[in-house]
């Protein structure tokens, strides 16, 4: 969905049991192009791994530019909008931030500064947290995601043991080693990443 | 077995068993500790003197098979805040005390000599023993040695060196079934236990069992209650990631206090998040899901191993990870886990102490982000009681006063935990008005509408927001009396079947016929009792305020300040 031909494509073929662990990379944010002003619900509905029921019932906490959102019709606008998704969260803070919560009145209201007549396309940073990443991540990763190389570098540094389970690494159609991948990642800005199950050798 | 009050006088080293006064019969947990402290402790007494009393109380349902019912409450006048105080924890203490027939253990007086003691509690009563071997030892060694020393598998409640040195941030630890530690963390109650010269309490219930008035009704209610807990989506999140699931969310909201409360977002948040922690635990063969006492069906605890697969710490919670992580700018989970283990061993609050470190970092005592430095100071200064260690062990307020720092995040001298009240103002009302100093657990979420305390005023007005916060605190005070883990509150009390099942459990246990209104009235009376104690101790509405900087320093990234005036906050007590 996001793979873009002008970016290098890094494909990681991994053991099936490791796929859920790779979904944690989504907490760092992926880059998704969309039409300026697209309603939040429509934007999510078009992504691999999402569907209407899931968006309405399971995604219980939504932030747009750090503000908790209740309405799925909220337009996504601005130069660099950041959208973050989570399941229902614990505690008083979790309840206050939850979509359409009875306790939403206890939020701090942040003054909105949105241009409501933006045209063209925008790049949305989409962050997926906790079970939302686990549920929707595998489909997104298989379809390919755009992300800053720094996000993948950070992920690799906190998940050092995952490298051992990498079956094949393919960069723009050519197999490479884990070491060369690290060197390459240091030099890149934005990449396309695909993570999928390795075929049985 | 009929419930009794077990009383220990440490001045003349005597013990006794008393009938439960009628006025205390309907209380357990926090409701009982606060009722006893308010009835028996002189509010103006010195918290570390002989007139203060330390009260342990299992919850109303502790010792039964009710899910998540094994929290133990400890109460006293706090040496940190000077207010009435209750702190609670899991572990096996509550279940074992209840099975001894002990409704409350009241420790009063103070030895006239320098000797140290331990207590052994059984259904027959309490025995006071002189203790030498364990003095000066850390909590882990106490648990290991005392477990080996005594027959069976006793419950153990202990203090570490911080409690012995009567540091204002000292906690009381409770052994869990795996030999790990759970902490009654806040308010310095470990110092009160130290002032009574009690190093540990061993509990052996033998064959003791808790009476249930109506077994069949109890079984049915417990089934419904446990199902509501297990099915709730928040329970699932807690079981998978623990409370640390909140790091990413609170950071995203711009409410994660960072660098001694100067920002609401932490660059290293994804290195310390619940998601990263979960993966690290799995990769190192730890347990991402674990319970702090038998019967918990949520299992928000976990066992975190080091890189070599050796257990480093357990019960690694969001507030502790935030405090050592974002507030001190330490983005290395292993350093945070090591500090957590040392704090558990020394017996010192893992919220108060890291917040104290962050204030010390601002003062230039050590750099922000210095994880190894924090561990070194914990080991070499706090554990050994050097001058610096005692200042840090005195809490965030003590550090601020010692080093002349003005940005000190405390209310009633207790450190503000993990949610910045500028970015989530409802929490600020709780911090300001709590009877026990800044404490996030005082206003946990319970669907106030289900409990019948839904607001009557427009919640979008400030008056309505204060009313909503008040109702949350009333409901929380009531739940705190049951001995239920508070996580049931945010997990399940917005489920229509869960609260009635909880009330059914209490009725089946005692043969009572409580209804929802009784629960609300219980919550109100607990809050009023605590408030009356504080007023008699010299507190006024001026103490119900957030520190000045929350009003004057906008918090990035949203650049918001806390904007409730003193008069608006004071309406909290209009009930
Ligand atoms: S939910 Fe967590 S704190 Fe509560 S009883 Fe279970 S393990 Fe203990």
UniProtKB/TrEMBL annotation, chain A:
Protein name in UniProt: Uncharacterized protein
Lineage: Bacteria, Pseudomonadati, Thermodesulfobacteriota, Desulfobulbia, Desulfobulbales
TrEMBL record, chain B:
Cofactor: tungstopterin; [4Fe-4S] cluster
Enzyme Commission designation: 1.2.7.5
GO molecular function: 4 iron, 4 sulfur cluster binding; aldehyde ferredoxin oxidoreductase activity; electron transfer activity; metal ion binding
Transmembrane segments: none
Domain Aldehyde ferredoxin oxidoreductase N-terminal: from-to ranges: 1-208
A Pfam family assignment: AFOR_C
Source species, domain of life: Bacteria
Keywords linked to the UniProt accession: 4Fe-4S, Iron, Iron-sulfur, Metal-binding, Oxidoreductase
InterPro entries: Ald_Fedxn_OxRdtase_dom2, Ald_Fedxn_OxRdtase_dom3, Ald_Fedxn_OxRdtase_N, Ald_Fedxn_OxRdtase_N_sf, OxRdtase_Ald_Fedxn_C, Tungsten_al_ferr_oxy-like_C, W-dependent_AOR
Similarity field: Belongs to the AOR/FOR family.
Designated name of the protein: Aldehyde:ferredoxin oxidoreductase
UniProt organism field: Desulfoprunum benzoelyticum
